[in-house]
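Pasting as-is:
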Amino acid sequence: MEHIDADLQEDKPVFNIVGDKVALGPVLKSMVPDLFRWENDFAVTLMSGDALRSVSREAVEASYERHVKERVSSLIEFAIYERANSRLIGTAHLRNIEYVMRNAEYGILIGEKDCWGKGYGTETTVLMLDYAFTVLGLHNVLLKTYGYNERAIRAYTRAGFRVMGRWREAARLGEQLYDVIFMDCLATEFRSSFQRVVDLP
């Protein structure tokens, strides 16, 4: 019976939060092959600011297992699905969550490059901010990005983030130096097209 349930779950992903273009659900062990592929695609990891290095499948599996076992309350991560076909396309998370101070850091990775430039990152970010402010009761969400990632900066701005500061020429791409850009969004400034992520009866 458990085997049948697992198969059904793989055929139909679980969605916690649903938008127009994307849906968010739990990160599952069955996703490790996709996570492994994305973490070894330099075009993808470059946009996240991660080191351009090879990552073993064992390391990706160990990272997943560590998160599952520790159940870290300061980290909440969702899988991102393309809603039209329920295809897994990336992940988004809130980390370093401070429930007393009511703040957290945001991160997103769209691993499927054919999904870039379609507004999926913007909508995911809106949904994550809505979740942070409406469900978790946070007040400030911070992110860090890089001057060369103009597409991400536009998406974050559309979602409600504002540039709050720059670490000048602290990132290098080839021979070119770029600023590290810090952006944040306040609950009092956030205007979501999704009124709530949970529809109460």
